[in-house]
Amino acid sequence: HLATSLPLPSERDHLRPRIDLIAFMIDIKSKYSLKNVEASLAHVDASFFLGKVCFLVTGVGRVNHCSVEMNAIWKLGEVYCSPVLFCELELEGIRVATAQRLLRMLQICAGHIPGVSALSFGSLMRNSADD
Fold this sequence. Notes:
alpha/beta; nucleus; Centromere_Cenp-M; Centromere protein M; chromosome
């Protein structure tokens, strides 16, 4: 399910499936994109930041057209203890690899991978980013 911002409308709460992962998309070419994500974060329950949130940064192939500071994106990941993924949606190979990575994260967050919790996975992602 996709939403342009949070909070989600409450009139369909009873029909909404369980939310296992929230992927915030940030277009590196749009300051509005970052501002929208920052405003939406206030509407996310704190328990989601225990491994069930990630930031997906698009447009990274055009660093010379950036409107968003990379430090601001890294800071979001640090403050919310959530992984930051970078991709270029216009390149099919990278788009497919990113989709597969997100699907694997979703499987872990939904509890479909025995022995791996969203919290431990999030910790592994942060540790690998530090290396």
